[in-house]
Design goal:
- The termini are far apart.
- The chain has a five-stranded mixed beta sheet with strand order 1-4-3-2-5.
- Helices cover 44% and strands 18% of the residues.
- By secondary structure, it is α/β, with parallel strands linked by helices.
- The longest helix has 18 residues, at 11-28.
- It folds into two domains: 11-43; 55-135, YaeB-like fold (2-Layer Sandwich), CATH 3.30.2310.
- The protein is elongated and about 80 Å long.
């Protein structure tokens, strides 16, 4: 039975299309000359880490910042990131991170600020449900 003249593709034609598509997928991600697979992988992982490295704010924390009219400078955000990373490296899960006159409760696993406040607004300077603190 000869199917080549019909509207259906032969198995060989499908196979060629599929294999060519698979080969093209691999060629789109060309590595720079002289880089090993391991180097390319490490470079890509570093990019992904940088994307996710910056601390995020929960809806509650963002609301607190807005209500209390707290605006963070780029330098303060960087210090908050550094403090969060240091807390995570020490095994702290829920950390108090103090940056200048600002206090943040941060979940280091999710890299998420849970709440934020000005230190002058804290009642009696008591923080609960944390297992460590970073002053940066």
């Amino acid at each position: 039975m000869n199917v080549k003249n019909s509207q259906f593709l032969s198995i060989e034609q499908l196979q060629d299309q599929y294999l060519n598509r698979q080969q093209n997928v691999g060629t789109n991600a060309k590595a720079p000359a002289g880089m090993s697979f391991e180097e390319v992988l490490q470079k890509q992982q570093a990019k992904e880490t940088q994307k996710t490295a910056q601390v995020k704010f929960s809806k509650h924390a963002a609301g607190r910042l807005s209500d209390r009219k707290i605006a963070l400078t780029d330098e303060q955000m960087e210090r908050l990131d550094v403090g969060t990373k240091k807390a995570g490296e020490k095994g702290i899960r829920e950390s108090l991170v103090l940056v200048d006159e600002l206090a943040f409760i941060v979940n280091t696993k999710n890299n998420m600020v849970i709440t934020a406040m000005d230190q002058t607004e804290t009642n009696e300077n008591i923080f609960t449900n944390i297992d460590g603190a970073v002053i940066i």
